[in-house]
Amino acid sequence: MSKVIAIVNEKGGVGKTTTAINMAYLLGKQNKKVLLIDFDGQANSTMIMGDKNPNEIEITISTLINKIIMKENLPPKEDYIIKNKDIDLIPSNSNLFTLERNLCNINFREYILQSFIDEIKKDYDYIIID
Ligand SMILES: Nc1ncnc2c1ncn2[C@@H]1O[C@H](COP(=O)(O)OP(=O)(O)OP(=O)(O)O)[C@@H](O)[C@H]1O
Ligand SMILES: [Mg+2]
Question: Is any atom of ligand 1 closer than 6 Å to the C-beta of 15?
Answer without folding.
Answer: yes
